[in-house]
């Protein structure tokens, strides 16, 4: 059951301009715990810059539906 590790993050409130920014997105992490990439691309294709995002310990607020579904599928299939 250990599938694709992912990070949950969202754009900081002061940078969030729309509903997609305010949603928390799921970002695939490098397998094996390598360093974080310079920029992160969520499962839904949403691009986030590390400086304007905060990592969350779990889904908070409104999750991005596309990310949620994709992360769930990835986690199940490895
Ligand atoms: Zn998303």
TrEMBL record:
Q: Which domain of life is it from?
A: Bacteria
- Identify this protein by name: Uncharacterized protein
**Organism listed in the record:** Saccharopolyspora cebuensis
């Amino acid at each position: 059951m250990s599938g694709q590790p992912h990070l949950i993050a969202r754009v900081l409130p002061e940078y969030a301009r729309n509903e997609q920014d305010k949603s928390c997105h799921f970002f695939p992490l490098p397998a094996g715990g390598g360093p974080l990439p310079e920029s992160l691309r969520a499962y839904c294709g949403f691009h986030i810059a590390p400086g304007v995002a905060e990592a969350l310990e779990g889904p908070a607020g409104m999750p991005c539906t596309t990310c949620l579904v994709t992360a769930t599928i990835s986690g199940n299939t490895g």
